[in-house]
Amino acid sequence: MRLQVYLSCLVNFFTAFSLIFCPSLMTCGWLISVAWCFWIAVTLLIASVISLLMFRLQRPNDRQIEAFFGNDWPSVSICHRGGAAEAPENTTFAFREANKNGSKFVEFDVGLTKDGVPVLLHDDSVDRTTNGTGALKNLTLAEVLKLNAAAKHPLREKFPQASIPTLEEATVECLSLGLNIFFDVKDWSTEMVNAITELFQRHSELYERGMVCSFFPLLPYKVRRQDPAILTALTTCTNLIQFEFGCDMTGPLWKRSLCILGDYLLLWSQSAWLWILCGNAATLLDKKIVTDVYLGRLCNNISGQLQRPPHATRHGLRLSDELLSGSLRRDL
């Protein structure tokens, strides 16, 4: 099985080089020797495979992964941002509502304040969800705690006042309620990585009840380099690079083209080799790409068995559509 996985990865590398480098090498072949172009391509390919095998991180054992997902997976409810449809998102009120509604999993977003304290907030700024304004990175913890996270929620009459919890407070609350946690982290700074790993070390039950996920591969890699026992996952997004670089339909064609190409390569990399490099326990899918063909290809890359169900312990599934802010359910 391990050999099958390596061979699958090698085939993916050959495919990438065929699609990306061959056209450019053929062009260069008109200028320099074709033989030289061939050996350059082979050398780069071999170097890439060796680098992957040298720097890859070992996956956690299956027992730890199965302990996190439980026997009911995937027929479970995951409350996105704590369950934002039923209570103010990313607050302790949301976690209590999730528990009351029978959920076993919550997902919440983590960011850093100006003074380096991790708190729960989805956006870069506090404008959308609170009665305050400004970027989170420009606000101290004391300033953040004065804000009302329920100020703009549709059910603000039911929840008139809700503070933004710190990561520590949110974790303690979820663990006390028996909820397993998906930590959605977009910041891969050393400060954030230290905050995450120290949290797991303070609460050892998180090694079987917490999973760190991110759109950005560097975050799970850095987390697991520091603490290999932490469960991590990569979240897919069909237009991450386009979103990050502000590539819309009105922008210049060259910029849009590069962003689209970048998104395609990132999606391919996530299913082809990034999961090996990071040693991830799960792949979290954007619902826009959940098709039988994609799931079959993903399963084949990861497990080497087309018959293996996509929700098995080799990788999990989360629907990451921002429009679905409440409890998310996916029965396969």
Q: Can you describe this structure?
A:
The protein is α/β, with parallel strands linked by helices. It is built from twelve helices and eight strands. Strands 1, 2, 3, 4, 5, 6, 7 and 8 form an eight-stranded mixed sheet that branches. Strand 2 and strand 3 form a beta hairpin. The longest helix has 28 residues.
Describe the structure concisely.
This protein has 332 residues and is an alpha/beta fold.
Q: Order of SSEs, N→C?
A: HHHEHEEHHEHHEHEHHEHE
Strand content: 5-15%
Low-confidence stretches: 304-332
Radius of gyration: 21 Å
SS field, number of helical segments: 12
Termini Cα gap: 25 Å
Q: Helicity range of the residues? A: 40-55%
Average pLDDT for all residues:
80
Quantity of strands, as a count: 8
How does the major sheet shape up? 8 strands, mixed
Basic shape: globular
Sheet/helix structural class = alpha/beta
Domain GP-PDE: 75-317
InterPro entries: GP_PDE_dom, PLC-like_Pdiesterase_TIM-brl
GO molecular function: glycerophosphodiester phosphodiesterase activity
Pfam family, one: GDPD
Which labels suit this protein?
8-stranded mixed sheet; 332 residues; alpha/beta; PLC-like_Pdiesterase_TIM-brl; 8 strands; Glycerophosphodiester phosphodiesterase 1-like isoform X2; 11% strand
